[in-house]
TrEMBL record:
Cofactor: Mg(2+)
Keyword Magnesium carried by entry: yes
Keywords associated with the record: Magnesium, Metal-binding, Transferase
Pathway stated in the Swiss-Prot or TrEMBL entry: Isoprenoid biosynthesis
Protein name: Geranylgeranyl pyrophosphate synthase
InterPro entries associated with the record: Isoprenoid_synthase_dom_sf, Polyprenyl_synt, Polyprenyl_synt_CS
A GO molecular-function descriptor: metal ion binding
Pfam families in alphabetical order: polyprenyl_synt
GO cellular component: cytoplasm
Amino acid sequence: MALFANAITSCPYIHYPKRLSLTQQKIRCSSTTSSVSANFDLKTYWSTLREEINQKLDEAIPVKYPALIYESMRYSVLAKGAKRAPPVMCVAACELLGGNRLAAFPTACALEMVHAASLIHDDLPCMDDDPSRRGLPSNHTVFGMDMAILAGDALFPLGFRHIVSHTPTNLVPETQLLRVINEIARAVGSTGMAAGQFVDLEGPANAIEFIHEKKYGEMGECSAVCGGLLAGANDDEIQRLRTYGRAVGILYQVVDDVLEAKSSKTNIADDEKQPEGKKGKSYVGVYGVEKAVKVAEDLKAEAKKALEGFEKYGDKVLPLYSFVDYATDRGFSFADQIGRVGLFIWYGSKRIINQISSRVPN
């Protein structure tokens, strides 16, 4: 989740020592790979793909009867400010290995549907209890818990159906599609993201590595691997993509935790002083900022090392290198990351506006 979830674990009472400020202590990696990715215009590449993916997602979820469930699905999937990291990584991995972008788009859209579904469920009061997402009301805050659960339930199978019904059969053999579907099912199931969410809620604090690997690493791993599978990657390439995607997914969340800690103003002695009802565990909350920064450095190095086997593909590997640097330096944002009023204008539904007005405090 993280870059693949945008679920920032708040640590409002953690003191961030000045000597560890990210503006002073850079998360380091190979200077060679950093200079290589610096020559690639990731923002243009990412923005262009986002526009295409947004359009295809809009077409993939038309409003049908019963309308409210589709409006709930669209509210989360088409949310302004969504980075589309899972689908973009999928397309980049597919193109790296010579695959056609058109072959990747259906799976890319399915990944975003699954991603959105997981965020809807994660935000529920019985889970992470987050009333907002990307600065806007969470799905259950707008539509109620019953409709949010149904919207998430509907998005998971819609993703699988979209892959089967929209992937060009002349570009991707059925055997490869089956592997893609199996990969997504593995990532979101009881050995993947669901396991991470359970341990985050019920497990001990020292299970933080498992939690991050499952909650945040799985989506990145799945996105990169699916792109490789669509392009017919060999076993070694799939394993490299698996290592790369998992490292980037966890890296983004760890950096989120560190940046969140940096912005806090109050000290904390231990996790027991967090606000009552606050759920979720973070590297910073468990081990402190210094170890979290070290973990981020190691993850960045691991992700870039996994890409070394793809240098034979030339410039096609640059998007994947650049994703790693973006996860640590956050060098740009997207223009449509707007507030609540902007979303109302964009969504254009009087009924939804009325629902939000009646359920969300001013």
